[in-house]
Amino acid sequence: MNTIMYNNIYEGHKYYKYICWLLIAITTISFFLYCLGGKQIYLYNGLIFLAIQIICIKDNELFYSIFYYLPSIRMYRFYEGGNTVLGIIFILMLLKFIYFRRFKLNIYYPVVALFLYLLGSLACFIVTDSYELLLPMTRILTCILLFFYIISKNKNNLTYVLYKTINYFICGCVVTTLLGIVFNLLKGINLLGSRFSGIGEDPNYYSLSYAFALSVLAVNAYAGKKDNTNNLLLMFIVLICGALSLSRAYVFCVSINVVLLLPIYMRTNKIKLAFVVTVIMLFLTFSHEAFTKNFYYSFLERFVNDDFEGGNGRYSIWSYYIGQNLKDFQSFIFGIGTYANNGMLSIGAVQHNTVLEIFSTIGGLGLFITICCYYSIFNNIKKIVGLQSFKVIFLFPFITIFIGYLSVNGMYSDSQVLLFCLSILFGSLLNKQYNESHTL
Questions:
Q1: DSSP assignment, residue 312?
Q2: pLDDT digits (tens, 9 = 90+) for 221-256
Q3: Residues near 100 by beta carbon (within 8 Å), at least 6 away in sequence
Q4: Boundaries of every domain in the chain
C-alpha cells in the first residue's frame, strides 16, 4: 500500500525507524541464507536478532513486523520442515507485555467467547485424545489477544496503525516473492515451469496472502477520493506475484473481486483509465514468449489433473471426511481427532477445507464454538471502530480470506486468524470513513 497515503511523522528517535528496519532486514537475510545453505550459524543469527526485536522494539513496531514476516512464515522456522518461530514470538510478546504490566483486559476483548472456545476445544481434545492441538490452539488465542491489545491501546489512532500494518504486510509480500525468485534461480529451479511459492511455503497458502493484499488494495482504491497511481502499480505487482503460484483458489478469489468490484468502479466513475492501463500491462506481460510456453501450460494442467492434491479429487476427500463424522453421535459432536491420530483412515490426504477440518477434527461442537468466537471477534472490532453496519464492498478482503481457506487447511493457522482480524479492522475503518465522507 502506498506509504504516502497516510504519512504521519514517525514518533520517537529520528533513527529508531531505520534501526527497526535494519533488525528486520538482518533477520530476513539470516533465515534466507539458512534456507539456502542449511548452515546453523545463520539460523542462530536470525533467532538472536528476533530476540533483540522482542526485547527492544516498541509494541506497535513489533506488531507491524509480525505482519511483515507473515507472507513468508514458513521461511522462519527452526529446522528443515519444523515449526515456524512466529508462534513462539507471539507467546513471548504476550509474556513481555504482561511482565511490564502493559497488558490489561478491557471490555473490548472477546474474553467470554475465547474462554468458551478454550473449554469447548479442550472437551473435544479429551474425547478424541488430540492433546497435541493444545499448543497450536494456545498460539491462536495468543494471536487474538495480541491483536486486541494493539488496537485497544491505539483506539484513538487506529487509521495510522491500520495503514502501517498493511504497508508492512504488502512489503513482506513483495520481499517474499523477490527472495523466492533469487532462491529458485540459485537452486536452478524453473520459475515458470513449476508452482512458485516463495521459500518453503505451500503454493496455495502463499497465494492467499496475495489474494488478500489485492483485495485490500482494490477496496482502498474504491474508498479513496481520487485515483492512486502507486496503488494501481502495487495491485499489478501483487497480481503477478500471486499468479506465479498456479493456484486455482487464487484465481477464484481474484475473479470474485474483479467481477464484483469492476461494475462498482465503472458506476462511480473511478479508475476507468486505471483499468484500461492494467489490462494493457497484463497483456504485455502474459503475451511474453516465456509465459506462453511455460506458464499457460503449467496453469492449465492444474485444472485438468484428477488427483487429490491437484484439486479435482477434493470432492471425494470432503465426502469421505463428512462420512467419517456422520458415522456415530460421538464423531458428529466431538469430531474424529487429528489426522495423525487417524492414520487408519483409508484416504491419503488432509481435508483441504478449513471449515471441514474444524468439523472433522473437533466435531459439530467445535465448529459451533469456533463460529461464535469469530463472530464475537467481528463484533468487538466493530465496537472499537464505532461502526454500526457494514457496506458489503468493505467486506471483500474478509470474503477473500474466507473463500481462500475453503481450499486449504487453516484451523490453527497464524496467517488465517491474523488476516481475518485485519480484514475486519480494515473493512470497519474504511466503511466508517466512507460513511463520514459521504454524509451531507
A1: T
A2: 777 655 566 777 788 888 888 888 878 788 888 888
A3: none
A4: 13-104+155-189, 107-153+312-440, 200-302
Cα–Cα distances in angstroms (integers) from residue 208 to residues 245, 251, 361, in the given order? 10, 10, 23
- Tell me the backbone φ, ψ of residue 84, rounded to 5 degrees: -75, 160
- The whole-angstrom separation of Cα 421 and Cα 239 is 23
Give residue for cell 530476513. Answer: 28
How far is Cα 245 from Cα 155, in angstroms, rounded to an integer? 37
Helix (H) or strand (E) holding 188: none
Q: Is 79 left (phi over 0), alpha (psi -120 to 50) or beta?
A: beta
Adjacent-strand bridge partners of 84: 77
Cell output for 200: 518453503
Question: How is residue 166 written as a grid cell?
Answer: 498493511
Q: Is the pTM of this model over 0.90?
A: no
Helix (H, G, I), strand (E, B) or coil at 32: helix
409-437 pLDDT tens trace: 888 888 899 999 999 999 999 988 888 87
Whole-number Å distance between alpha carbons of 136 and 414: 9
Please give the Cα distance from 1 to 4 (Å, whole number): 9
Identify which of 76, 79, 101, 80 has the alpha carbon closest to the alpha carbon of residue 90. 76
